[in-house]
Amino acid sequence: MVKLRLKRCGRKQRAIYRIVAIDVRSRREGRDFGKVGFYDPQKNQTYSNVPSILYFLERGAQPTKIVHEISKKGLCEELRVN
C-alpha cells in the first residue's frame, strides 16, 4: 500500500519535510516513489505539485492525517490560482 507522508530533511533543529509517495513498510527516510511537495513548518511555507498528488491519489495512495491537512490548504490555494 502506498501512502503520502512526510520525509524529514534539513539539519538539526531546522527540519524541512518533503511530501512523498512511499510504501507503508518503508522507514521514514526510505526510498520513495516520487516527491510531490514540501513543507517548512518554521516559515509555514508549503509547495504542492497538484498533478502528481492527484496521480497518486487516483491510483489508491492514502495520505496521512498531517499530509491531508497540509495538502488541503495547498490544493485550495493552487486551485484558486488556476
Largest sheet: 5 strands, mixed
Question: Which homologous superfamily in CATH is the superfamily?
Answer: Ribosomal protein S16
Task: Write out the strand line-up for the largest beta sheet, numbering strands in chain order.
Answer: 4-3-2-1-5
Give the low-pLDDT segments. Answer: none
The CATH architecture term is: 2-Layer Sandwich
Tally of DSSP helical segments? 2
Give the proportion of residues in helices. 25-40%
User: What would the average pLDDT be, to the nearest integer?
Assistant: 84
CATH topology descriptor: S16 Ribosomal Protein, Chain: A
* SS-based class: alpha+beta
Please tally the β strands and state the result.
5
Highest-level CATH class:
Alpha Beta
- The secondary-structure element order is EEEEHEH
**Cα radius of gyration in angstroms:** 12 Å
Strand composition percent = 35-45%
How far the N terminus sits from the C terminus, by CA atoms, comes to 31 Å
Shape label: globular
In short:
By secondary structure, this protein is of the alpha+beta class. 32% of the residues lie in helices and 40% in strands.
Compile the SSE list and pairings.
Elements: E1 2-11, E2 14-23, E3 34-40, E4 45-48, H1 50-58, E5 62-63, H2 65-81
Parallel strand pairs: 1-5
Antiparallel strand pairs: 1-2, 2-3, 3-4
